[in-house]
Amino acid sequence: MDIIKLIQQRQDENFNLHKDYLNHQMVDVLQTIGFDRKYRRAEGPYLFDHDGDRYLDLLSGYGVFALGRNHPKVVKVLRDVMEAEIPNLVQLDVSILSGLLAERLQAITPAGLDRIFFANSGTETVEAAIKFSRCATGRSKIVFCEGGYHGLTLGSLSATGDEYYRKDFGTLLPDFIEVPFGDLAALEKALSRKDVAGFITEPIQGHGVWIPEADYLPNAADLCRRYGTLFIADEVQTGLGRTGKMWAVDHWNVEPDILCMAKSLSGGFVPVGAVACRQWVFNKVFNRMDRAVVHGNTFGKNNLAMAAGLVTLEVLEEENLVANAAIMGDQILSDLTQLVGKYEYLKEVRGKGMMMALEFARPRSFSLKVPWDMMEAANQGLFSQMITVPLLQRHRIISQVAGHGMNIVKFIPPLTLSSCDRKWITEAVTDVVADAHRVPGAAWEFGKSLATKAVKMKTSAR
Question: Minimal CA–CA distance to 350: which of 359, 341, 342?
Answer without folding.
Answer: 359
